[in-house]
Amino acid sequence: MAGLSLVTFLRVLLLLFPLFVTENFAYSGAGIVYTREQLFALSEPALLPGDRPVVPQELRRRRRGCRSGAKRREKQRRHKPAVPAIIMGNVRSLGNKTDELAALVKTQREYRECSIFCFSETWLHSNIPDNSVCVPGYSVVRGDRDWSTSRKKKGGGLALYVSERWCNPGHVTVKERLCTPDIELLAVGMRPYYLPREFMSTIVIAVYIPPSADAALACEVISSTAAKLQTDHPDAFMRSLGKRGG
Asked: What is the pLDDT of residues 74-117, one digit of tens each?
């Protein structure tokens, strides 16, 4: 009798055992079985797209040296070329065109990456201050027409705008300034941020020859001025540019 009651008790226990199993797992003849979602919940959290693992400071890789290459050096010196990029024009009254020039610097790459702007016939005089013709990011060097030497009251004048990203404004100096009835000349020396070892500085000679000038005398003045500057600065990179009025 005791044996029959024990067997009956075990059968009842087996029938009631699933009622005591928790919801986290199911029971089968092979043991405890977990669902797919429960197994994913037990695994370590995966990184989401864009997340970076947390690496201790002592295990991080130390990068030594720097990247090299001609293209990378050219990209770094985009606004610091060895040979200056120059845009020249005959503006005929620069005072009312500075806003247009500033807009071109902001919108067009050719103007934004230009090192020097050279303008002739600026029509500037001593009563016009520099801040009225300034362009952001550029330092201006003026060579206004002198009435006492040129014997002309209107027209003429030279102006150079030097990019501050290419050359420090403190390293821009006027080497020569001439104003005669036959020629107007402005020579500016600059020491940019980057130059090859062969050159020590850069000299730009801007020239404007009036329509009524004597071309032979003007050429003689340009030649003598350039020879003098080359003698004083033999290691300088020199570039001359100008316009004949007419």
From this structure: 676 666 777 888 999 999 999 899 999 999 999 998 898 899 99
Average pLDDT of span 196-221: 92
Entry pTM: 0.69
Rounded (to 5) percent helix, strand, coil in the chain: 30, 25, 45
Q: Which amino acid is at 162?
A: V
Tell me the CATH architecture of domain 76-244: 4-Layer Sandwich (3.60)
Q: Where are the domains of the chain?
A: 76-244
Query: Using a CB cutoff of 8 Å and minimum separation of 24, what contacts does 215-223 make?
Result: 215/244, 217/182, 217/183, 218/182, 218/183, 221/178, 221/180, 221/182, 221/183, 221/185, 222/183, 222/185
